[in-house]
Every structure is written in structure tokens, then in C-alpha cells.
Amino acid sequence: MHTAAQIAKHLKEVHSGGNWTWVNLQDTLKDITWQQAITKVHSFNTIAVLTNHIGYYATAILNVLRGNPLEAKDELSFTHPPINNEGDWQAMITKLNDDWLALVTAVAAIPDERLGEIFVQEKYGIYYRNLHGLIEHTHYHLGQITLLKKIVQAQGK
Fold it and tell me: 146, 21 in Cβ contact below 8 A?
């Protein structure tokens, strides 16, 4: 299996399961209600903010792989449309899932030699670094979501 296919496998595992941590986005988010997703715990970001944040960067990378310019801005990555009901929350999860699975497919199709090329601009490094960075970033925030979920559900929210 070529390197890009291995990276795609890791992306799929952090989304759908089978990674070393035994924690994934799909299973973690599936039983969180919209009220739990927007519940503020101390000064931490909410589950909804973190979920959107993870999806924001996955979508940004997917758009680049589709030949579009990089339009992501860090200051926009922690904002999301209002979540006022279960439909709003499910729409966010559906977008994350759809974009993530499209990203897995796009990454698997990258020729290995492209992984060493500059990703958009030199300041961002190479494709390989950005794809692995997305995996690391996702695991980091997934850990936060997992802890927030436990706190919120323990509070009976």
C-alpha cells in the first residue's frame, strides 16, 4: 500500500474507528444531543465548536485537493452557524461526515510523489505534513470532546 493510502487509512480510522486510541469521531458524536453539544463547561470550547473546528480544517484541505484555493482562516475556525435544535446539530455532523469521507477518498488518490510537494504556500510545509497534522489535530480535539461529553452527560444535561 502506498503512503497516501496509509494516510487515508489513518484519516478514516480517526473518523470511523479502528485506530490505536479506540476513539473516533463518529462513535463519540452519535449520542450527543444538540443541548449537550452547546453546553458550556467552564471556559472551554463547546462540543459543537470543537466539532465544527475539526470539520473546518478537513473541508479546507479537501477543497485544496479538489483544486480550489486555500480559504481557511484560523479566526473563523471556531465559529459556526447557530445550533437551535437537533436538526442544526445533525446537519453539522452530516457535513463533517460527508466531507471527511470525501477527504479520505481524495487523499487515497494522491500520488506518493506529491506528498513531498509544497501545500499551497511554503509557509504551510508539504502535503505530508498537513495531512498528518490534520490527523494529530483531530485526535487532540477528539480527546477534548470525549472529556466534555463525559462531564456534560454526568451533569445530566
Answer: no
Residue that has been written with the C-alpha cell 481557511 in this structure: 72
* Location of C-alpha cell 480527546: 143
Question: Cβ distance 3 to 109 under 8 Å?
Answer: no
Average pLDDT over residues 50-60: 97
> What domains are defined for the chain?
3-154 (1.20.120.450)
**Is this model's pTM higher than 0.90 or not?**
yes
CA gap 14, 137 in Å, rounded = 11
Alpha-carbon span 98 to 140, nearest angstrom = 21
The pair phi, psi for residue 126, each rounded to 5°, is -100, 165
Q: What are phi and psi of 118, to 5 degrees?
A: -65, 135
